[in-house]
Amino acid sequence: MKQWKVVITGYGSVGKQVARLLMLRQDHYRKQYGMEVILVGTARSTHGVYDEKGLQPSVLEAFAAEKKTGDMPFSGSDFIRSCQADVLIETGPSQFETGGPGLAYIRHALETGMHAIAVSKGALVVDYAGLSALAKQHGVSLKISGATAAALPTIDLLQYNLAGCEIQAVEGVFTGTTNFVLTSMMDEGISCEEAIARAQQLGIAEPDPSFDVDGWDTACKVTILANAAFGAQLTLSDIAKSSVREVTREQIQLWQQSGKTPKLIGSIRRTPEGLRASVELLAVDSAHPFANVKGTTKAIRVETDVMGDLLVIGGKSDPVAAAAAALKDLEHILSLQ
Ligand SMILES: NC(=O)c1ccc[n+]([C@@H]2O[C@H](COP(=O)([O-])OP(=O)(O)OC[C@H]3O[C@@H](n4cnc5c(N)ncnc54)[C@H](OP(=O)(O)O)[C@@H]3O)[C@@H](O)[C@H]2O)c1
């Protein structure tokens, strides 16, 4: 049976779940694709672990438990090269200013003929066009579901399900954490700070919640979707952006009295002046399809020329769902082999 080798960069909440699900599904890959899919390597910020025969769960557990060494210079790109894998799954930090280590890793993977699956957003925000061109040049795939709302189908919906249509507009509730904060404020009358603290207690928000609540996460997803699905050349600074921290209790009461619901909505729209992309805090009325999208639930609405409008609501917002989205991408690549 043909072997298919996987390397994961970043071994945190998502990376661990990718490894776990990948091992659980090995039998499925054999039956469905006739492939022996094995995880040969994974890397953290300071070092990696490798086994050409496939990493065993006990080795991965020990690797995850190791303390960071900190003082050893680590070249993730050299590590990736030494793994000689068929596909890289990138689950490191989303550094949207520089692309972070993920940008170098994905570039390196594509240049050396590996397929790449991005869950982190930084590399895609900084250079989607360059990475996509690199993938084409080397005859490999660059897949991005995990970075574009993960369990909520966005990029696949736009690129595959609506292929041939002209997409006129996309709008979405793309960040589960932000939606949880706004829903908690509306339903429980708590302040934004209290809602953020609750999200942190439940493990929904990061210790530093700014990436999500200040709209960066949604803006990253909008930038990537605009560039990948509309062929735009937007940078993050082209996206006007709101933060949910602007919302006060008084404002919430006014919206409640007028039957409105606040949502942080990322949108991309074709206009006569060109593509318009933004992240706005909007108060939608009760008839709007996003009005009842509550908690960490996400949603996307698409307007097309000939297939009409589409709405998808749901999909979990957690590391398991993000890992599953990356492995959906893996299956799409496997189905082409
Ligand atoms: N969590 C979610 O639900 C979710 C959903 C969708 C997308 N994402 C995206 O997925 C990515 C991972 O999220 P996470 O929650 O798993 O983060 P996390 O728990 O903080 O894990 C990040 C991992 O990246 C590693 N890392 C940092 N710098 C590195 C480098 N230079 N080379 C190799 N590895 C490096 C860290 O290493 P150490 O272990 O040594 O610190 C850690 O293992 C993020 O980009 C996030 O935006 C997350």
Structural description of this entry:
The chain folds into 2 domains: 2-151 and 319-334, NAD(P)-binding Rossmann-like Domain (Rossmann fold, 3-Layer(aba) Sandwich); 163-313, Dihydrodipicolinate Reductase, domain 2 (2-Layer Sandwich), CATH 3.30.360.10. It is 41% helix and 22% strand. It has helices spanning 13-24, 26-33, 57-65, 76-83, 100-111, 122-137, 155-161, 176-188, 192-201, 210-213, 216-229, 249-257, 319-334, and strands spanning 2-9, 35-43, 48-50, 87-90, 115-118, 142-143, 167-173, 240-241, 260-271, 274-285, 299-304, 309-313. A 6-stranded mixed sheet has the order 3-2-1-4-5-6, with helices on both faces. It is globular, with a radius of gyration of 20 Å. The chain starts with a strand and ends with a helix. The model has no long low-confidence stretch (mean pLDDT 96). The structure holds NADP nicotinamide-adenine-dinucleotide phosphate. NADP nicotinamide-adenine-dinucleotide phosphate is lined by residues 9-15, 43-46, 68, 76, 91-94, 101, 119-121, 146, 150, 318-319, 322. Its EC number is 1.1.1.3. It is an enzyme of class 1 (oxidoreductase). This is Homoserine dehydrogenase.
Summarize the structure.
The chain has 337 residues and is an alpha/beta fold. It has helices at residues 13-24, 26-33, 57-65, 76-83, 100-111, 122-137, 155-161, 176-188, 192-201, 210-213, 216-229, 249-257, 319-334; strands at 2-9, 35-43, 48-50, 87-90, 115-118, 142-143, 167-173, 240-241, 260-271, 274-285, 299-304, 309-313. Helix 4 packs parallel to helix 5 (100-111).
